């Protein structure tokens, strides 16, 4: 029935939302500086992204601490380490019969992450060479011998360490130590429940997505016009009446969101601070730098109504 299809669509959108957030976590790497990351978020994302491969050989059990643990390191770098350790543990298992346990705990100014498997283990000779670049016992099955070496280099850059304890027939314990970090100060955006109606221009090249977003905005009480590409949006913006908010997709053919932004800077500079960009998380380096240089908010698709409401409230002119 219709209600069932609506529930399925919402469930599907929520699954997509989680995948996009995980991929964004693994790909948006700050350029420099010590970054604080909640380790549990990275571990859970790595387990989810590698689940299909890992669970062909082993079950995965996560043993988290009672409280969040923040460490020094960006999501992409820590994610690469976690993914490599999970895939290595899986490769050491008899098919479908092993278990991988991931746990992390804070102690003092450090955090210890362990990945334990009950696979075949390593001989002393293999263990002694495990961190050598290009050394692998799985050359015939796709092994490159770079995974552990890369992990060691990443962790050294972060002021961390990695160690192996293994023996044939009793599995392997990988121990990673990281520097603890202070969690960033939380900034809570209050969702305005009563928002003055706005004139909103939705710029979205996927017509169905644009129509669906327009319906959501109208349900929130706003007046909406939809432009199917950047050129059409620019034509609309050049004639009265003006818009309170421009909600614009970043990646579009013909004229991208970045190109539209540049055109608005030239032709309608008073609207620049009213633009909210939307992205599906597929960042080029140029697009990422552009978004991070904005003073206005931007949204990762799919987003909740509360996120949309907060973004509109940040850029819309004050009533009256």
Topology diagram in text:
Blueprint: H1 2-27, E1 36-38, H2 39-54, E2 58-63, E3 70-72, H3 75-91, E4 98-107, E5 110-117, H4 124-128, H5 147-157, E6 161-166, E7 172-179, E8 199-203, H6 207-219, E9 223-227, H7 230-237, E10 245-249, H8 257-267, E11 275-279, H9 285-292, E12 298-300, H10 305-315
Structure write-up:
The protein is α/β, with parallel strands linked by helices. The chain has two domains: 2-179, Heat Shock Protein 90, CATH 3.30.565; 199-315, 3-Layer(aba) Sandwich (Rossmann fold), CATH 3.40.50.2300. 39% of the residues lie in helices and 21% in strands. It has ten helices and twelve strands. It has a five-stranded mixed sheet with strand order 2-4-5-7-6, with helices on one face. Strand 6 (161-166) and strand 7 (172-179) form a beta hairpin.
Which descriptors would you attach to this protein?
320 residues, alpha/beta, Heat Shock Protein 90, Rossmann fold, 2 domains, five-stranded mixed β-sheet, five-stranded parallel β-sheet, 10 helices, 12 strands
């Amino acid at each position: 029935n219709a209600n069932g299809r609506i529930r399925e669509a919402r469930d599907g959108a929520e699954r997509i939302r989680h995948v996009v957030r995980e991929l964004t976590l693994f790909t948006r790497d700050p350029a420099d500086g010590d970054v604080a990351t909640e380790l549990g978020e990275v571990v859970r994302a790595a387990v989810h992204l590698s689940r299909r491969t890992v669970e062909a050989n082993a079950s995965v059990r996560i043993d988290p601490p009672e409280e969040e643990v923040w460490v020094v390191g960006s999501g992409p770098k820590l994610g690469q380490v976690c993914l490599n350790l999970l895939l290595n543990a899986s490769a050491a298992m008899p098919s479908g019969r092993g278990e991988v346990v991931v746990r992390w705990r804070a102690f003092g100014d450090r955090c210890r992450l362990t990945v334990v498997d009950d696979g075949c283990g390593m001989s002393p000779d293999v263990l002694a060479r495990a961190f050598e670049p290009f050394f692998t016992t799985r050359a015939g099955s796709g092994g490159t011998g770079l995974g552990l070496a890369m992990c060691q280099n990443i962790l050294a850059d972060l002021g961390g360490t990695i160690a192996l304890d293994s023996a044939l027939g009793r599995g392997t314990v990988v121990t990673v130590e990281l520097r603890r970090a202070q969690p960033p100060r939380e900034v809570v955006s209050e969702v305005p429940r009563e928002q003055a109606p706005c004139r909103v221009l939705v710029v979205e090249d996927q017509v169905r997505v644009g129509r669906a977003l327009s319906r959501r905005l109208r349900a929130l009480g706003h007046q909406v016009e939809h432009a199917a590409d950047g050129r059409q949006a620019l034509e609309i913006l050049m004639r009265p009446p003006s818009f309170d908010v421009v909600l614009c997709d970043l990646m579009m053919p013909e004229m991208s969101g970045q190109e539209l932004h540049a055109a608005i800077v030239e032709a309608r500079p008073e609207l620049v601070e009213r633009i909210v960009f939307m992205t599906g998380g597929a960042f080029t380096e140029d697009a990422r730098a552009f978004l991070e240089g904005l003073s206005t908010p931007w949204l990762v698709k799919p987003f909740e109504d509360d996120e949309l409401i907060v973004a509109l409230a940040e850029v819309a002119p004050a009533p009256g």
